[in-house]
Structure formats: C-alpha cells, structure tokens
Amino acid sequence: MAKNKRNIAGFGEVAGNSNINNDDNVNIDNDKEVNNEDELDNFFKKHQNKNEEKPKVKGIYFDPEVLIELDRLKNQYGRGSISEFVNAAVKKAMKEKDML
Hints:
The protein is mainly α. Helix content is 48%, strand content 0%. It has helices spanning 11-15, 36-48, 64-77, 81-96.
C-alpha cells in the first residue's frame, strides 16, 4: 500500500483570493444593529455615582425556624431574594415605629 502525500493548504487556497472585492463602497448588512453610544452611556452612568451609598453586609443571627423559611424563600425566588425580603421587612417595621 502506498502512502498518500499530504500537503498543507496555502493561504490563497484557504482564503479564496479569487473572490476578493476591492470595492471601497462595500456595505455589509448585519442583522444586529451596532450602537456603541448606548453602551458607553450606560458605562458612564453606572460609574458616575461612585460616592452613592451601596448596600453593606451586616452579620445577624436568626432563629432556626426563621432560617428554614429564609432558605425556602431563596430557593423559590433566587439569589438576592433574602436580602430584599429582610430589607423590606425591617424598613416596614421601622416605619411603623417611626424610626425611619
């Protein structure tokens, strides 16, 4: 049995140079609309208020039955739901006692 001689294809063979369009007025129409201005605006809006108050972590202890329910809440509503729920509950209680 004779071995076939294999060669690596050159750039011209792979790129297909015969189909090159040298027209300077080429208009490529993609389905996606590129809007870099919106992305840049969003970047600057996100970073302009660096001194704005951000949520802080505070370790607190819960009774076991409360932790069980908080874990169920997290499993049902996902990441961040415990913080949102506890913040809402504490704010409501503080407003009722005229503390906030």
